[in-house]
Write a structure and sequence with these properties.
Number of strands: 10
Keywords: DNA-binding, Transcription, Transcription regulation
CATH class of the largest domain: Mainly Beta
Order of helices and strands: HHEEEEEEEEEHHEHHHHHHH
InterPro entries: AraC-bd, Homeodomain-like_sf, HTH_AraC, HTH_AraC-typ_CS, RmlC-like_jellyroll, RmlC_Cupin_sf
Protein name: AraC family transcriptional regulator
Organism: Rhodococcus qingshengii JCM 15477
Number of domains: 2
Strand order of the largest sheet: 1-8-3-6-9-10
Distance between the termini: 35 Å
GO molecular function, one term: sequence-specific DNA binding
CATH architecture of the largest domain: Sandwich
CATH superfamily of the largest domain: Regulatory protein AraC
Structural class: alpha+beta
Length: about 280
Amino acid sequence: MLIPALREIADGPQLDDDSHLRESDRHTPMARAVPAPFQLTTYIVETDHITRWPEHAHVEHELIWSDRGVVNMIIDNQLWTVTPGVGLWIPRGVLHEGQANPHVAFRATLFTPELWTPAWNEPCIVTLSEAARALLIHLAHTGMPAEQRLRAQQVCVDLLTPASAPHFDVPIPRDPRLRMLVDKVLSDPADDRSLDQWAHVLNLSRRTVTRIFAAELALSFAQWRTLVRMSTALGMLGTGMSVNAVSRRVGYGTSSSFIAAFRKTVGYTPGNALAAVN
């Protein structure tokens, strides 16, 4: 079973735009998904094409987490990268949109909000232990008496803790004229088309594209793409992927050039990030 925001695009063709949505649809929280008296429910999603779901909100807290691959979420014009081992906590009522590449397996767990403290009212990265992941999947697939399920759900709640690592902020331009560019770079950070090439694809002048990035983000296109690449690299390193493999996946011809860009942008080396995982 899929949450409503994902059902159409997971079962049907790729969603190229969300122009069919009324403005009220974008900002009206969806109906409750967790039946009383339970605390949570988990939806399982596996993509076979580039999948994007438009901006929406829930009346319950949501935890997006990945079993395989990377999921990009956008909250308040900021990019959040979700990889195996961590989850993204999205409080109730918070507008968000997202994108996943083909062959990604991710989960969306919705929680009744009443039992959570105000500390959970802001988006954050959550450490998701193997025990928590296994128990959430077990609950999603296994029938059991209500009292037993409630006890197991409480264990899941107790196992969730905010991650100690700070979030790496990547702003996202909102101008609709850049939608194709943003979607492509998020889905494939290795795309190395120049500013002139992108201006041609978008049927805009180089000056217009430059002006949009400067006005919205105070960044150049190249600076923004580097931030996306480093955010994606952090997520991949978090899964234990080697520095050489990550450097190729995010568009660098040599590991040395990737290491230099990573250190300049993030403040430490990819090796440091990999060591933290191991």
